Amino acid sequence: MLAPPPPGSGLKPIYGSGTPWLIEVLRYTRNPLATITRHRKQFGDITYLNSFGRQIVTPLTPDGAGEVAINRTKSLAAEPAWGFMIGPFFHRGILLMDFEEHRHHRLILQQAFNRTHLEGYLREMQPMIRERVAALPTGDGVRMLSEFKKITLDVALEIFLGLKLPRAEADRINKAFIDCVDAGLSLVRRDVPGGRWSRGLAGRKVLEEFMYRHLPAKRAQRTPDLFSVLCHVESDEGHTFTDADVVNHMIFVLMAAHDTSTIATTTMAYYMARHPQWQDTAREQSRALPAEIEYETLGDFTVLEAIMKESLRLNAPVPGLLREALQDTEIGGYFVPKGALVSATAMVNHYNPALWNDPETFDPGRFSPDRAEDRSHKYAWMPFGGGAHKCIGLFFAQLEIKTIMHNLLLTHEWSVPADYRWKLDYTTLPVPKDRLPVRLRRL
Ligand code: HEM
After folding, report:
1. Whose C-alpha in 67, 223, 383, 408 is 20 to 30 A from the C-alpha of 335?
2. Buried b (16+ CB within 10 A) or exposed e, 124-140
3. Which residue CA neighbors atom 14 of ligand 1 most closely?
4. How many percent of the chain have pLDDT more than 90?
């Protein structure tokens, strides 16, 4: 039992396996779905998982996930939970803020993702993505995860920073950024000299220094990149960002946009390699549509859209919405004590047989209007989260992903051996252990 509910509260206790945390973590990272299924069978609607000496309360129903996302009683906070993971490198990012302060920043930040700005980002990213995709290596064993990572990082630097940097400077910034991301996702969370953590702290310093150096020029001129946009956006109430806000949001958004889109495109490539008929259908549609994507035509990519949704269902890049209980509270009538970590975990709903037909099968047709399995519950499909912290970049992500995949389909064909099945590493974000080697051929 996690904690006995207060007498007379009418709340029920939450049960978990009692397995030592190291063993539970090892089991979970080896096969999270098996752990979830076992816990659902044993404990019903909600459970807790032992992790790093703490218990992570995990609702096992879509209603429970919705309660965490919506957080009606404001008992759950994102900052203490995400701060533990990524705080030292991404502090004052918007996901590390809560309640009124979060709302204040979100209303300003949101303006940078309105339609006018999205159209600008889309226009800017097309030529560079086309060029990068055309330059992909071909042959056997092309590791798609690494290739997509390079492309999304270039998008992040060019579209978000809007700076033409000399190669050495771009490499220095890339390295600092990657050091921050790796440190945030590191399992060894200590500042050992030369270790990941200290490299992350050094990386954060490099990024801050870099952003502050370029900030005056960005303030002075309006350009279509996110950096300049953040210097000039105003909420409807007329609020703007300080210099420190711009720097902190830039560093966080670069991170939030990067690995997530990489995992999404890699997952799409994997399933399209394993199901070539879907690759062919998507290519046919891409050929029938203009090579240059317009904001208005994004919705015409119905096949890519279904493949993207199904890929995000089967491998959600952000495993869960992590929160900490600021006070004693409840989820679905179960008692959650102050200090507990809580996670609305995407996989719990994405593989729930009560919500999806044959959930382990790749079947993009389930999102078609006549089947609409994702409509079985508001939180049946939740790769972008929900509630106040719902992904602010979800439209940006979709236009980036579609642009990359559209260009790839038009210029390349890729495959994996018929018996190939990828193995995902779940220790941090879910990535293929072998980086997805494919045979990539130029058309
Ligand atoms: C397929 C790609 C992506 C996925 C699956 C994804 C997923 C998510 C999820 C699940 C959250 C909520 C986390 C929580 O509530 O604890 C989130 C938040 C966020 N995402 Fe994304 N994301 C993606 C791409 C992007 C991109 C491209 C950007 C920026 C351009 C971005 C910016 C953000 C930001 C700023 C937040 C925090 C919002 C807030 O706290 O108010 N994301 N994302």
Report:
1. 383
2. bbbeebbebbeebeeee
3. 321
4. 79
CA of 95 to the centre of ligand 1 (A): 9
The domain segmentation of the chain, as residue ranges, is: 21-442
d(CA 368, CA 375): 11
Closest Cα to atom 18 of ligand 1: 391
Chain segment 119-159, per-residue pLDDT in tens: 999 999 999 999 999 999 999 999 999 999 999 988 888 88
Q: Round the average pLDDT of the chain to a whole number and report it.
A: 94
Q: How far is the CA of 389 from the centre of ligand 1 (A)?
A: 8
Domain 21-442 has what CATH class? mainly alpha
| Per-residue pLDDT reduced to its tens digit, 422-435 | 999 988 889 999 99
Q: Ligand 1, residues 70, 391, 394: which to mutate, most atoms within 8 A of Cβ?
A: 391
Torsion sign, CA atoms 272, 275, 279, 285: negative
What's the gap in Å between 104 CA and the centre of ligand 1? 18
